[in-house]
Write a structure and sequence with these properties.
By secondary structure, the chain is α/β, with parallel strands linked by helices. It folds into two domains: about 190 residues, Aspartate Aminotransferase, domain 1 (Alpha-Beta Complex); about 250 residues, Aspartate Aminotransferase, domain 2. The chain contains 18 helices and 15 strands. The strands form three sheets. Strands 4-10-9-8-7-5-6 form a seven-stranded mixed β-sheet, sandwiched between helices. The chain has a four-stranded mixed β-sheet with strand order 1-2-3-13. It has a four-stranded antiparallel β-sheet with strand order 11-12-15-14, with helices on one face. α7 crosses α12 and α15 packs parallel to α18. It is globular and about 70 Å long.
Length: about 450
Amino acid sequence: MDIASLIQSRLSETYELHRRYVNPQFVRVLEVIGFNRNYCRARGATLIDEKGREVLDFLAGFGVFNIGRNHPVVAQVIQDMLHCSAPNLVQMDVGVVSGLLAEALARITPTELNAVFFTNSGAEGVEGALKFARQATGRHKVVYCNRAFHGLTLGALSVNGNEEFRSRNEPLLPGCIPVPFNDLNALEAALSAGDAAAFIAEPIQGKGVFVPDDDYFPGVRRLCDRYGTLFIADEVQTGFGRTGRMFALNHWDVTPDILVVSKALSGGYIPLGAIITKRAIHSRVFDCMDRCFAHSNTFGQNNLAMAAGLATLDVIEQENLIDRSARLGNYLMKGLNDMAARYELLHQVRGKGLMIGIQFGPPRSLSLKTGWKLLHKMNEELFCQMITIPLLERHHILTQVAGHGLDTVKILPPLIIDTADADRFLNAMDDVLKDAHKFPGSAWTTVKNLGLRTAKTA
């Protein structure tokens, strides 16, 4: 099979293939908002579509491509792994490459976290972490946060704090209790009975990019210790340098009992994740030879994923991407905060490193307030499309809304971006905001018409 020729010959059919065989509703969404481009090449922070247009990727596959797309070092390691004809997935054996990646992960996590279980995704990691916590403690109750996102499989969905995802799936896993994020009093009330197996949380919430107070996670650690509850940290999106530290919890010097990672671990080449726990917890799950398969999967330790993981960690270190993330994140946030002083629709900038939420809100001036109310009456999801659509159409920068019902645009650029990329984004955002502050104007009319089209096709 000549895969390159096959792709090239059928590229123009991409959207029709997905409409027919995959997800026609998603195709409709992309067509309505003008995101239906055929991307045919990618490198670093750049996507190139079939018309030759270069797009600056400030979405990075929702945080998958921390080291950029198609990094040559990882590609070469994968090719080398293929060419060495190593035995793979023998199953009744253990492989050296998975042992090496487990060792590498143990080196970059706190000393106590040294037992690794490999997964294929973040959601699978959350599922496994919930099982580990229940088995290790003998308890069944799990506490999670409002607005949390931990995946869409049934167990992960049970600790997902977004009703739009939970809808049509009830009843979910029993004994899952929501509490407000960044509220230690609410958490203590939920844990105080001493019957919770785990508290699971994202250090920075991905939906909306909500950052906690500095005393929150140290307080979480103390409360979990006080009531015998395991703390599961979901660093699927925040891990591997995204927030300017290797893991976001490093900002507060907090060690979880169970750490879930995925997304950026393989450089975006192959599905890969891991559950990293304290050995004492792991030993309570895998506590005898009869239970050596107390939790398992088929592809978790496949050689290509393991090699990609080793190469990705090496790239992060060699290219100093964690410091780069912190530096460029500060640069972008300063530029955005300067805009917030000039544009009344821009209310707040939240984030750490290169995980940034740009929060919009009701304006002060009467004319803009009229437009704001009109759009939100039509559809609460509309306003941010006034930002993301022209960023792509006019400035060729890919971004997206931070979550349902949130007037927040989220940026997650690859950690390899430079100051020129940051300036390009800031200049584009300034231009888009300038248009958004003219009411009535073309930007408001475009988004209003988008809302009308959406209503007609719903």
